[in-house]
Write a structure and sequence with these properties.
Distance between the termini: 43 Å
Strand content: under 5%
Oligomer: single chain
Number of helices: 25
Largest sheet: 4 strands, parallel
Shape: globular
Structural class: mainly alpha
Length: 551
């Protein structure tokens, strides 16, 4: 087992590099920026269609009113993502551009949206009853085209701006007006490119480019929804996490379109009175594959808390239980530890795969509908399963089955690890080493602002809260905040120090380029170090103090 893990660890630099890939990061961050749309719109889906379970159907007029916020948010999801992806891709490109010759992300966002509309929407004429854009491909079906539009715009802008092929105005002209003229040439070239490409594509194939992309990738989406495809996707996600790389950052960009498309097609099938057959969906990933977080760690965490004989494991389980219940499992992953722990290699990789296979069995053979609604990823897994699948009997049966499966998968390995820890505790000396408390200089931390970043904004809150608690105890006016990496670029200029949590530590090189430009400090934490800091406010203050004191 050590040999296997050692081999995997040798590939960690490659995995880190893959996670930092500017295209994958732009897709992930662009998708994450638009996540409030998905969560918000699902609320109206629940209100509109959950009553159907008990035989009550809203009158059509009321249903139309309830669905309007959904149609005007989720219905233009791809249009929004074309802009957010362009924004994050522009930020990535700007890291390699001179500080005095940056790409204008507002302009690239607008250009990407216009280009996406040209590639994906048919113009409605008076004979259709209205004038405007056809919206059939502006939602989840158009996500892949949205990504393509964003990248093409970024390439075009970088080509022209980096070569100073722009309209230049005298220095006396205000910067905001100069920037407008500077963007005219790349903006015009981008839009003309999309326009001409659209004309040619439609004339050759008879349909728009967005539909062509769907036609090409539909077989791949179908294969991803099979047993082998699901195993590859979620086995890889867990494997990356096991070696300390944030797996979703690598895997999710490749399947993000399929996740949303599966959910929307499931809902459409149920509304049409048909069986929702798609397994691959956001809900399935959040609450089945990641029941308690990556590795499906809810059940083993509860084992630690209530079944462990080892005092250390019991303490870790009980301290981590509440965060894990809300799918924030980093305290458990690094505190147990689960990652890079040979004992848990097999269940950590295979349990998520078996969970999604069990869901597919329930859908394919027992007639259970797949996930219909998207809930926040911090929704407790058991609640997410029942609500996401429509509050029916079969999802309740599935919940019981998946919990039992996870117990069977983890219990033998848990017993082995617990026995090891009990033996270690028996052999441990009773000597208690006194730790010297570092005198934290309050003047250095006075009114400083600290931003902690993680993948989704959950884990970062643990350290931010510990710092706030420590500062309050010491009477130091320290300001702390938690956020998600990718949504930080516009706010980090207001902080003195940016700290990366372990699962986004691979992004440190990119972050440092940004913070160096702003003249602020940055640092990345590693697994056990981070957990120790979240549990010890004094050590958290000492850590921040040491970073800020560095020359």
């Amino acid at each position: 087992m050590d040999t296997i893990i050692g081999t995997i660890e040798k590939g960690k630099p490659f995995f880190d590099k893959l996670a930092r890939n500017r295209y994958l990061k732009a897709i992930r961050d662009g998708f994450l920026s638009a996540m409030p749309i998905i969560i918000f719109s699902s609320i109206f889906l629940l209100i509109a269609y959950v009553p159907n379970i008990w035989g009550y159907n809203w009158p059509k007029s009321i249903e139309t009113i309830l669905m309007k916020p959904y149609n005007y948010s989720m219905g233009i999801m791809a249009l929004v993502v074309s802009a957010t992806t362009a924004k994050h891709f522009t930020d990535a490109l700007n890291r390699d551009m001179p500080e005095n010759n940056q790409l204008n992300f507002i302009s690239t966002m607008v250009a990407s949206m216009v280009g996406f509309l040209l590639l994906s929407s048919d113009a409605l004429t008076a004979k259709d009853g209205a004038a405007g854009f056809g919206n059939a491909l502006l939602g989840s079906k158009g996500l892949l085209t949205a990504f393509i539009s964003a990248f093409i715009v970024g390439w075009i802008y970088k080509f022209f701006v980096s070569r100073n092929i722009t309209i230049k105005l005298p220095e006396q002209v205000p910067p905001n007006i100069s920037q407008t003229f500077k963007d005219v040439i790349p903006f015009s070239v981008a839009i003309v490119f999309f326009w001409l490409f659209d004309l040619g594509f439609r004339n050759i194939f008879g349909y728009c480019f967005a539909q062509g992309v769907i036609n090409v990738f539909q077989p791949l989406f179908g294969a991803a929804d099979g047993y082998i495809g699901l195993a590859i996707i979620y086995g890889a996600m867990s494997l990356f996490w096991f070696v300390g790389v944030h797996g979703p950052s690598i895997v999710e960009p490749a399947i993000s379109a399929a996740l949303l498309l599966g959910m929307s097609e499931n809902l459409a099938a149920v509304q049409a009175g048909q069986h929702a057959t798609h397994v691959l969906s956001l809900g399935a990933q959040y609450f089945v594959v990641c029941l308690g977080g990556t590795g499906a760690t809810l059940v083993p965490c509860l084992m630690f808390a209530f079944l462990a004989k080892s005092k250390q494991l019991k303490a870790i389980g009980r301290a981590s239980a509440i965060p894990v219940f809300f799918n924030v499992n980093e305290p458990f992953l690094f505190g147990a530890p689960m990652v890079l722990n040979p004992v848990f290699f097999v269940p950590f990789i295979l349990t998520p795969v078996f969970n999604i296979w069990l869901l597919k069995i329930f859908i394919d053979f027992l007639g259970m509908d797949g996930f219909l609604y998207t809930l926040p990823w911090t929704t407790p897994g058991p609640i997410g399963i029942i609500l996401g699948c429509g509050m029916k009997l079969l999802p309740c049966v599935f919940l019981a089955a998946v919990v039992a499966l996870d117990f069977v998968m983890y219990y033998p390995f848990f017993k082995v690890y617990d026995a090891e820890k009990v033996e270690e505790e028996k052999n441990a000396t009773n000597e208690v080493k006194a730790e010297k408390e570092v005198d934290v200089n309050g003047e250095v931390l006075d009114s400083k602002k600290i931003l902690v970043l993680c993948a989704g904004g959950g884990t970062s809150g643990l350290l931010a809260n510990a710092l706030a608690k420590g500062a309050k105890e010491k009477g130091i006016p320290l300001v702390t905040a938690a956020g998600s990496y990718g949504a930080h670029t516009d706010i980090m200029k207001d902080y003195d120090l940016v700290i990366l949590a372990p699962q986004v530590a691979s992004y440190y090189q990119d972050l440092k380029k940004d913070t160096d430009r702003l003249g602020i400090k940055s640092v990345a934490c590693q697994g056990k170090q981070y957990i120790e800091l979240t549990r010890n406010p004094q050590k958290a203050l000492e850590f921040v103090f040491s970073v800020l004191e560095e020359a």
